[in-house]
């Protein structure tokens, strides 16, 4: 999932593509409950209270996913049906949103049930998008605006650009420092990332100077190192 701040930055980039004075971004400080159709209805009521006349309800809106048997808790359009059922009472018109696919030959998006026969359909699932981000691969321009793709890439750098920790444990004199220093040299030779070595002496002086060698203190020392 995309975190809140990345999502808002993406929204702002998308807003720049709208004609001036035709759209407004308003953030609603409410967390998802994953309550399915009832949450969709709740969303409609809240939007009405904020002055909205329409609500876009997507496929499996607020869906909690699958149960322990791998079956969806709700149908893909149950939320749309519930909001539509109470639309007049609430005073909000439900705008259904079906699965959209990109038609290569026409260079545009269409709902999946409107695609002409024989046309090439392109789509990227959430799983595929995460794979592209994790591997540092380009996100196609037909999928999203380049500015939006850049925001996603900055928030989800590929794995070879992320930090990681290697924690050596063992008895005194077992060779932890020897192996750690050898690995340090190899990583520095690689030259693609900064490397920091926290050896025992550094930890004892700067992190655990007041600790002794009781089991309680040894456990606390490991806990502190793990936190760092």
TrEMBL record:
Limits of the APS kinase domain: 162-228
UniProt record, GO biological process: sulfate assimilation via adenylyl sulfate reduction; sulfate assimilation, phosphoadenylyl sulfate reduction by phosphoadenylyl-sulfate reductase (thioredoxin)
GO molecular function: sulfate adenylyltransferase (ATP) activity
Keyword Transferase applies: yes
Matching InterPro entries: APS_kinase_dom, P-loop_NTPase, Rossmann-like_a/b/a_fold, Sulf_AdTrans/APS_kinase, Sulfurylase_cat_dom
Cellular compartments per GO CC: cytoplasm
Gene3D superfamilies: HUPs (3.40.50.620), P-loop containing nucleotide triphosphate hydrolases (3.40.50.300)
UniProt KW keywords: Transferase
Domain Sulphate adenylyltransferase catalytic: 1-154
Record carries keyword Transferase: yes
Descriptive protein name: Uncharacterized protein
Lineage, broadest ranks: unclassified sequences, metagenomes, ecological metagenomes
């Amino acid at each position: 999932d995309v975190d809140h701040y990345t999502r808002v930055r993406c929204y702002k980039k998308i807003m720049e593509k709208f004609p001036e004075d035709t759209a407004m971004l308003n953030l609603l400080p409410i967390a998802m409950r994953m309550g399915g159709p009832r949450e969709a209805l709740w969303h409609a009521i809240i939007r009405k209270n904020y002055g909205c006349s329409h609500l876009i309800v997507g496929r499996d809106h607020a869906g909690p996913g699958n149960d322990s048997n791998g079956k969806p808790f709700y149908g893909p359009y149950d939320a749309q049906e519930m909001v539509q059922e109470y639309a007049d009472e609430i005073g909000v018109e439900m705008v259904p949103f079906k699965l959209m696919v990109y038609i290569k030959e026409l260079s545009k998006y269409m709902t999946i049930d409107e695609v002409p026969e024989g046309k090439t359909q392109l789509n990227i699932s959430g799983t595929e998008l995460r794979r592209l981000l994790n591997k540092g691969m380009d996100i196609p321009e037909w999928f999203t605006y380049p500015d939006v793709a850049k925001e996603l890439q900055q928030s989800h750098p590929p794995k070879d650009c992320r930090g990681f920790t290697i924690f050596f444990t063992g008895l005194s004199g077992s060779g932890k420092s020897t192996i750690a220093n050898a690995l340090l040299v190899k990583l520095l030779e690689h030259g693609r990332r900064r490397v920091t070595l926290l050896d025992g002496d550094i930890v004892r002086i700067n992190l655990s100077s007041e600790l002794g060698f009781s089991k309680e203190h040894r456990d606390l020392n490991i806990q502190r190192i793990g936190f760092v």
